[in-house]
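Worked problem 6 (solution included).
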Amino acid sequence: MARRNGAPEVNAGSMADIAFLLLIFFLVTTTIETDAGLDRMLPPMEPPEEDVVIRQKNIFTVNINKNGQLLVEDELMPLNNLRDAAIAFLENGADGSCDYCQGSKDPASSDNPSKAIISLKNDRETKYSTYITVQNELVGAYNDLRNRASQRIFGTDFTEMESEYLNPETASAVRDELKDKVKRIQDMFPQKLSEAETTSN
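Solution. The predicted structure is:
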């Protein structure tokens, strides 16, 4: 009887099953990091039925040109002064209704934090890093005011309370307790940051 000279064949019938199991293993065990992004609320789909009248003194305008320069309330301002200027505007308390505001009560500036709006506008050629830095400074102004109010009322920073409240691993009883505290501070200094349309020149 003649012997075969060919190489022995490898049984590859189960290779597809092994590859499929490996694929499922990596899909289940891999963690995908997600970026937090910017916390912004989009405008509603339909415009409001009634026009909302906003007094110009309650709007704090910040413009960024393509060179990264800031025009704040129609005056050039360095970036490191932006946070302090925003804080002064937000807690001005011109109408006297804000008993926790420590502002100068300038009648030409915002009435109270619930009416104060920061309007950010940038050029189409503005660098993204500049845009994010300005955003951080403006959000930092809100956080500084909220931290100060939270320290005075609850003895802890607002940012710590909020991060613990938003953490999904926090016990539900603790989250329920933090919910009212976080909302109270947010209502004292509501974050009203409006982004106007960009300009091309």
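Discussion: The first helix runs from residue 15 to 29.
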